[in-house]
Amino acid sequence: MNLNYIRTKIDDIDKQLVNLLITRMEYSKEISKIKYKENIAIEDTQREHQILENIENYSKKYKNEIKKIYETIFKLSKKIQSEYIFKDKQ
């Protein structure tokens, strides 16, 4: 394997990750609609802990690094949900 080959592989993975993250954020927006209608709080720490526990079960390798990525995903998902829920209240 050479540098260009590995970088091409990483580029392929990045493309997949971006598409998956876009899909995840769209689902997050859909969740905000349900939470709004059912008067459910945006933050759900129990769900976040469940996801982080799942990550530990998926792989022991890089689990701390992946948890940090997910903490950022949680933060951005809550931001998206807040923007949807409070957009009409401004």
Q: Which helices and strands, and how do they pair?
A:
Layout: H1 3-37, H2 45-58, H3 63-86
Helix pairs in contact: 1-3, 2-3
Could you explain how this protein is built, in words?
- This protein is mainly α and 90 residues long.
- The protein has a single domain, classed as Chorismate mutase (Chorismate Mutase Domain, subunit A).
- The protein is 81% helix and 0% strand.
- Helix 1 packs across helix 3 (63-86) and helix 2 (45-58) packs antiparallel against helix 3.
- It is flat and about 55 Å long.
- It starts with a helix and ends with a helix.
- The mean pLDDT is 93.
Span of the ends, CA to CA? 54 Å
CATH topology category name = Chorismate Mutase Domain, subunit A
**Uncertain stretches of 5 or more adjacent residues:** none
The CATH superfamily label reads: Chorismate mutase
Tell me the number of strands: 0
Tell me, briefly, the overall form. flat
- Known CATH architecture: Up-down Bundle
The secondary structure category is mainly alpha
The helix content, as a percent range, equals: over 70%
H and E order: HHH
Q: Any idea what the radius of gyration is?
A: 16 Å
The residue-averaged pLDDT reads 93
Strand content: under 5%
CATH class assignment? Mainly Alpha
* Biggest sheet overview: none
How many domain regions?
1
Q: What is the tally of helical segments?
A: 3
Q: Which features characterize this protein?
A:
90 residues, single chain, 3 helices, mainly alpha, Chorismate Mutase Domain, subunit A, 0% strand
